[in-house]
From TrEMBL:
Name of this protein: SET domain-containing protein
GO cellular component: cytoplasm; nucleus
Molecular function via GO: histone deacetylase binding; N-methyltransferase activity; protein methyltransferase activity; S-adenosylmethionine-dependent methyltransferase activity; zinc ion binding
Ranges occupied by TPR repeats: 68-101
A biological-process GO annotation: methylation
Domain SET: 229-518
Pfam families to which the protein is assigned, alphabetical: SET
Keyword annotations from UniProtKB, A to Z: Metal-binding, Methyltransferase, S-adenosyl-L-methionine, TPR repeat, Transferase, Zinc, Zinc-finger
Amino acid sequence: MAGHKHKDGIDDISWFDNLLLEVKKVAEPIFKENKDDFLKNMLETLSKDSSECVLMNPKAPSKSIETSCHHRKRGNILFKMNRLDQALEEYTKSVAYAPSGSEECALAFANRSAVLFKCQLMSDCISDIKNALCANYPDNLKAKLYHRKMCCLKALNPRDPLINKTLAKARSLVSKMDQDKQKAMMDVLDHETRNLRYPREKINCHNWNFEDTVPAFDANNPVVPGFCDAIEMKYSPQYGRHMVATRDIKPGELLGLQKPYTRVVADHMRYKLCWHCSKQTWSSIPCNTCGEVVFCSAVCRDEAHKKYHYIECWLMTALLAYDGHTDIMERFIFPLRLTIMAYKEAGNSMKVLKKNLETVDAEKDPMKKGLVNGKFDPSKFSSIYCMESTPRSDDFDIILFTILHSLIGGFLFCIKTGLHSTEENVPIKLNTLMNDNYKFIIEFIYKNMWLITYNSSVVQLPNGSHDIAIDVGSLMTPGAFFNHSCAPMITHGNFGEYFTTVSICPIKKGEQIFESYGPILQDESKVERQDLLKTYNFTCDCNACKYNLEPLFLDDIQSMVTPKELSTIMKKVERWMVRVDQVTEELTSYVKSNNRKMDLSKDIKQVIKYVEQAWSMFPQKNAFPVLEAVNKLQILLTMLQTPILCLD
């Protein structure tokens, strides 16, 4: 990728490469000598460094008619090829990048409405038509758009009084059309008028804007709001803060229902899910300033802007200006969000933010650290800040790029918040920036990056396949207090605004409750599991790893039960393998056809009985029927979430 030149002759590639080399030169010997105070010592050295190590305030790309038009034309090609899902995403990008209220914005909304109309998403189609008409939509195209709106109204309710008004509006605009198209349009409208005399029944339109029903739940935990009192937090030097059962817990019990402190949509889903609530949206609206995200409604857009996007918006576009150098956008947006929200909670005051963090750091009792009025308040940053964030990696390359993310992110944060002032595309020496506020923000972002690495939970929304795709990352108060095991006891889910925690096996009173951070016992060998867990830089010592357990298959378990019991349980294994595969394959088509989620309550009740039977039958919990039963319950619980739907 060729860099472009700045006014002093430095190009954007060379300054970044120079930054990488200079920081590495300073940081590596300090890291090798003393890892504990490494960051502070490195920043102190950089502040005295007189090398040509520079940062650049990029010219952040804004909304662009050219970019919007590019995506709209790509959408047109894909629409003609009947690749509707890709066409919708391209039109959504066109909507996002178009300047607000522009003709290009109106054209993007109108073209996307054609996709929605073809897919019979009539309510969403009407929303896009309204947005197109509210923008600067060309008069010579309006008759066709009003005709489309009339068809939507007729499909939704053949007796809607707005149908005649909309048809009349379309007629009044025919004269604005190009002359060679007027007669054809009038013929279409005359045909519609005749058909209105014989109204048809309402057709089966689609509406996939589901509102998740939040289950009834008694969140009575005295320390962790949003969780029940069947669990409590304890501390030990070996396990740190961890969760323990206060009573026997059955499989399928809802243990937690909590709004996460924040959640971030994965990069590949940015134009499919609402940036704020993570709901899939078909007639999304853009941010008023940037072209990088979309929202399901003005309510979500305004809430996001109020809480974090007022700073994040510019930072995202600025980070994208560095594209080609690092994957900074994908890795950095979550810790950046934390930094902004903590700053917002401190009243946009650096002084107050420092004081807030010092208060948390001053508490040495691990059972009290981060508490607000005796509780882990899920809406307060202190409850998040107290989580594990000490870098545990010995890989200097990982450390180096984490530092670079923090240096660049801190620099941009300081510019946006007025702590630094510099011209666009003008290199500025790093040592001239190293005041106390900049050092503090670098350290804070660096800490948040590790905090996210060790504590965030990810959710895969069902998509009708077995492919693993992380769609939403969430951070909530007790999530980090469930330690890892290769044989997990709980699973998490995403239901509207809430994050759920559900048991997937029997848990005895006094047992520590584990979840899985990665591969599980039946999927990978111990060596492979340990290798994949190196991301967290720890060696798993769960029972499966400690005792080198592997799944026990048919030959291993025959002696544990009678032939009749074995035959009965193996029939259930086979039955639920088939049933879960069937649900996985049929889920999205069922939802699309019926405009509602599949009712899996009977299946889940039966699988819970299957789990309990297998659990009591085999003393070794690595027996294949036990592992299969727990796995099938976990999959079915995942299927309760609103699935990601495709148009094709």
